[in-house]
Amino acid sequence: MEAIDLRAGMTFEKDGKLIKVIESNHHKPGKGNTLMQLKLYDVRAGSTVQTTMRPSEKITPAILEKKNAQYLYEQDGTSFFMDTDTYEQYELPDESIEHERLYLLENALVQIEFYGSEVIGITLPSTVNLKVTETQPNIKGGSVTSGGKPATLETGLVINVPEFIHEGEVVQINTANGEYQKRA
Known about the structure:
Blueprint: E1 11-14, E2 17-27, E3 35-42, E4 47-53, E5 60-61, E6 65-75, E7 78-83, E8 89-93, E9 109-115, E10 118-123, E11 127-135, E12 149-153, E13 158-161, E14 170-174, E15 179-183
Antiparallel strand pairs: 1-2, 1-5, 2-3, 3-4, 6-7, 6-9, 7-8, 9-10, 11-12, 11-14, 12-13, 14-15
C-alpha cells in the first residue's frame, strides 16, 4: 500500500511499530514534490507525532480483527468494554481512544480492534445521538442554512448546530467529522 492511500482511522506497521493514522492531508507546496502531512499515534508507546511522507512511500497495513462490544464505564484513566458475544471484558487506556471518548456514552455499542491478541482501539458507529447540555438561546428566524452556534453535548464535545436547536434536545452527530447531522 502507498502512503497516499492512508486515511484517518487506518493502522499500519512501520519499523516494528503499530501506527494509527489520526489525520491525513495531501499537501502540494508551491515548489517541490507533493507530500502527505500525517498526524500519527504509536499504539504501543502511546505517543502522537506529526510527520510527512512521500505519497509513493510503501507501507504495510496492519491486519486487524474487530469484535462487537459495549462501552461500560471509565475509571482512573481506563475505559472498560465488554464483548457482546462472550461477555469478556477489555480495558483500554483513555489516551488511546481520546478522540473516540467524545462520542461515547455508557452502554454504547462499538467495535473493539485487535492486532493478534492485543487490544489496540475501537471503531465507532458512523453516527451517534447526544443530548445538548449547553447552547445559546433560540434566535427568532433562525434557519438550517444560517452559520449556526456552538453547543456543548453531554460528553463534553463542542460542535456547531443550527440556530433552532436548544438545550435538552438530542442531535445526531457524524463521528467521522464531528458535524451535526439532524435532530434525533
